[in-house]
């Protein structure tokens, strides 16, 4: 597995941790040769499970690893002679970036004013604290892509989690393209790949850590979104958001229950198995794993298990084929459990899960997380080099690898409760914190960047507690976890305190704490497809009023516009879409203007408020080469509104507006002016309102390096001799944004004024 991502022809970083990984490469290479279950394989969203590999490829990887170890002293000396000191022109020797996904400036300000975030308060007073302007659209894959490349979506090409295939209007991931191996050897019922499957990152542009690596400044990058599959560079990287689970999805949980629900699953987003006791009182069932891409028909691989309740029904023993028995206690997570699936011909694949026993009586309810890629024996590339995830797993134990690790959908569907979700999020945060401080300890020069998802996931799922009238509070407990967001911010504050103690007063270390966007309320969903239908822009077959997911029942011969994803509206353009009917030129321009005017006037009949703040043309608002891949219109909602769940999947509902009753009660897919992120730093800045695109350019400049010409950000740091100062002065209540609307009457309605700096 090393040959795909472990370069040997270029000089190595002088980072001591990287040297340790290289010394381990020989041993780990031998492990690959001796363990056929580590054959090349991958799982892709919508692509199932595919196998590829050969002993010759593994032997070649072992040889390259050996050659790297032998040549390391020579390449190190050569680098010193040819390159010299890469930090010669730097005004910082080390830069530490902590990404707290979704941390909101308004909420942070409130908690600081209340004395609940003393370490953030200290950093704000001794350094700087600003709102950080985000991308448009204001969602994580877009914003973090702008962070890493220093360009807007029209240049990096990521506008949403999903987009549509213009030839079929079927959904497809925006970030990754996955293709099965095309050359296979048929042996009976088996199909043995003769080449590696192809997996490609669709994000355009060059991450700034690659530019640093090219200039011999090392970086350790952990869990930054849209880094799957990992790209080669002189440094270490663990992929983040968009890493799939072992089944090839973005996270499919399993739920086992003796409650029949009339034989029907009571939820979506997961897989339910009805449990039955045999005459001995033992429950037997099976875990469904990935498709077997080596067998014709691609049947699912499964693992049988037995669940035996204790005599007092206070615990249960779980026995899974190939695993040691596990004792499960109610309302406690198990440790990571390794699942080994056999594909045939000696090939195996491993994943890891945690179990959570919801209850034993009156019904047995058992939850299992999505099956994560095993970082110790990864079935697909999740780190660069491949040995990095193995090192972390050996050092700290197994850890979550799924891009969207916190199982928001299991809570949305009430398969697990708030306690189970919160505990899961904290466990994953523990893992992230451990790997972050390991990277920090091994980086005396260069950059460390780690993104924590905890703040984002907790705000998504617990925002309703900040709003007593939120529709999602109906029939749900609404007080026990009222402090969940506060506890999460305090958890991050404690980590910051530990980080500040580690960094100390080192003048050569720049510390940045930032978020990609802020947060706001999500009370009402808007189905743009229903609005388009009512206004004659979208037509369903046979005069129907409703249509299913992925544009089921849409009459494309009469449809001029449609919506998919969280902010996008597409025109059914002739020559682009397979069944396009809107002519380019005047017809297209006129239709855009008409839709923009009408949508910005859209009023929620339940309260008389405007639902949409601003609609922008993707082509007119940017000039990058990938603007033509964007939705034609980007809909910027007012606070409290968002594309409905049904609209996001291309469904047409009867009503345009609907209450959001899911636990996912906070969001940020609104007008970007409403949800800026945060920017804390221990060094002065010379701009009032930094933008997320400025970070990469500024880091390059701090290291004395010249950004690429196409990068759009600014250098935001003041002269190195200038002491850090918070130009905005003391914390100002005006920094409380719409996203912090829980602190006042703004919780119940939109805010139209821009956030003040």
Helix and strand arrangement:
Layout: H1 16-34, E1 41-44, E2 48-51, H2 55-82, E3 94-100, H3 105-113, H4 118-126, E4 128-132, H5 140-149, H6 153-156, E5 162-164, E6 171-173, E7 176-179, E8 184-187, E9 190-193, E10 198-201, H7 208-214, E11 219-222, E12 236-238, E13 253-257, E14 270-274, E15 283-291, E16 300-309, E17 316-320, E18 326-328, E19 337-344, E20 347-353, E21 355-359, E22 365-368, E23 372-373, E24 383-384, H8 387-396, H9 408-412, H10 418-441, E25 446-452, H11 454-462, H12 484-503, E26 509-514, E27 520-526, H13 528-534, E28 561-564, E29 568-571, H14 586-600, E30 603-604, E31 609-610, E32 612-617, E33 633-637, E34 640-643, H15 645-648, E35 657-659, E36 666-667, E37 677-681, H16 694-702
Parallel strand pairs: 3-25, 3-26, 11-12, 11-25, 13-14, 27-34
Antiparallel strand pairs: 1-2, 4-37, 5-6, 7-10, 8-9, 12-24, 13-22, 15-16, 16-17, 17-18, 19-20, 20-23, 21-22, 26-37, 27-35, 27-36, 28-29, 29-33, 30-31, 32-33
Helix pairs in contact: 1-2, 10-11, 11-12
């Amino acid at each position: 597995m090393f040959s795909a991502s472990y370069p040997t022809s270029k000089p190595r970083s002088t980072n001591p941790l990287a040297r340790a990984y290289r010394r381990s490469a020989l041993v780990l290479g031998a492990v690959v040769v001796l363990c056929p279950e580590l054959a090349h394989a991958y799982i892709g969203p919508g692509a199932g499970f595919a196998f590829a590999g050969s002993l010759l490829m593994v032997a070649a990887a072992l040889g390259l690893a050996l050659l790297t170890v032998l040549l390391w002293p020579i390449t190190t000396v050569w680098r010193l002679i040819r390159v010299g000191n890469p930090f010669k022109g730097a005004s910082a020797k080390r830069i530490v970036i902590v990404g707290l996904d979704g941390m909101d400036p308004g909420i942070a300000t409130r908690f600081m004013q209340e004395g609940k975030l003393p370490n953030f308060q200290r950093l704000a007073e001794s350094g700087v604290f600003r709102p950080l302007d985000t991308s448009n659209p204001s969602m994580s894959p877009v914003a973090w892509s702008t962070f890493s490349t220093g360009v807007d979506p029209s240049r990096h090409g990521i506008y949403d989690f999903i987009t549509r295939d213009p030839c079929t209007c079927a959904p497809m991931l925006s970030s990754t393209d996955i293709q099965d191996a095309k050359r296979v050897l048929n042996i009976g019922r088996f199909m043995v790949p003769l080449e590696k499957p192809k997996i490609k990152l669709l994000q355009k542009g060059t991450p700034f850590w690659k530019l640093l690596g090219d200039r011999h400044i090392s970086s350790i990058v952990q869990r930054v979104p849209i880094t799957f599959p990992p790209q080669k560079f002189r440094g270490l990287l663990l992929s983040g958001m968009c890493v799939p689970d072992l089944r090839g999805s973005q996270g499919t949980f399993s739920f086992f229950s003796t409650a029949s629900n009339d034989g029907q699953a009571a939820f979506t987003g997961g897989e339910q198995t009805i449990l039955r006791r045999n005459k001995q009182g033992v429950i037997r069932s099976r875990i469904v794993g990935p498709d077997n891409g080596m067998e014709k028909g691609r049947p699912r691989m499964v693992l049988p298990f037995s669940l035996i309740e204790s005599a007092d029904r206070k615990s249960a023993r779980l026995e899974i084929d190939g695993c040691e028995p596990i004792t499960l206690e109610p309302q406690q997570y198990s440790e990571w459990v390794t699942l080994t699936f056999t594909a045939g011909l000696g090939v195996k694949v491993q994943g890891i899960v945690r179990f959570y026993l919801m209850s034993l009586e009156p019904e047995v309810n058992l939850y299992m997380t999505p099956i994560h890629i095993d970082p110790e024996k990864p079935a697909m590339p999740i780190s660069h080099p491949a040995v990095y995830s193995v090192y972390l797993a050996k050092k700290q134990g197994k850890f979550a690898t799924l891009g969207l690790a916190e199982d928001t959908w299991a809570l949305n569907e009430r398969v697990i409760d708030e306690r189970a979700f919160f505990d899961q999020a904290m466990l994953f945060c523990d893992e992230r914190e451990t790997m972050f401080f390991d990277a920090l300890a091994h980086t005396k020069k260069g950059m460390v960047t780690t993104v924590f998802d905890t703040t984002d996931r907790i705000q998504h799922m617990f925002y309703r507690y900040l709003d007593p009238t939120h529709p999602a509070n109906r029939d749900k407990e609404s007080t026990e976890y009222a402090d969940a967001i506060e506890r999460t911010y305090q958890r991050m504050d404690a980590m910051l305190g530990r980080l500040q103690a580690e960094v100390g007063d080192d003048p050569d270390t720049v510390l940045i704490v930032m978020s990609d966007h802020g947060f706001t309320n999500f009370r009402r969903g808007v189905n743009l497809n229903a609005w388009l239908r009512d206004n004659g822009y979208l037509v369903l077959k046979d005069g129907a009023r409703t249509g299913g997911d992925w544009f089921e029942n849409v009459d494309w011969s009469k449809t001029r516009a449609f919506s998919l994803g969280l902010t996008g509206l597409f025109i059914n353009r002739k020559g682009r879409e397979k069944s396009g009917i809107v002519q380019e030129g005047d017809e297209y321009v006129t239709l855009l203007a008409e839709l923009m005017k009408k949508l910005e006037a859209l009023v929620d009949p339940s309260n008389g408020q405007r639902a949409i703040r601003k609609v922008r043309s993707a082509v007119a608002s940017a000039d990058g080469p990938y603007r033509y891949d964007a939705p034609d219109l980007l809909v910027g909602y007012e606070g409290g509104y968002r594309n409905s769940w049904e609209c996001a999947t291309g469904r047409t509902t009867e009503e345009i507006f609907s209450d959001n009753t899911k636990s996912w009660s906070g969001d940020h897919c609104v007008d970007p002016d409403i949800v800026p992120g945060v920017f804390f730093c221990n060094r002065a800045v010379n701009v009032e309102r930094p933008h997320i695109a400025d970070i990469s350019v500024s880091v390059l400049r701090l290291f004395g390096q010249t950004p690429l010409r196409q990068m759009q950000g600014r250098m935001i740091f003041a002269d190195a001799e200038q002491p850090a100062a918070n130009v905005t002065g003391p914390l100002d209540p005006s920094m409380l944004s719409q996203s912090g609307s829980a602190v006042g009457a703004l919780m119940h309605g939109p805010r139209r004024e821009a956030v003040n700096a």
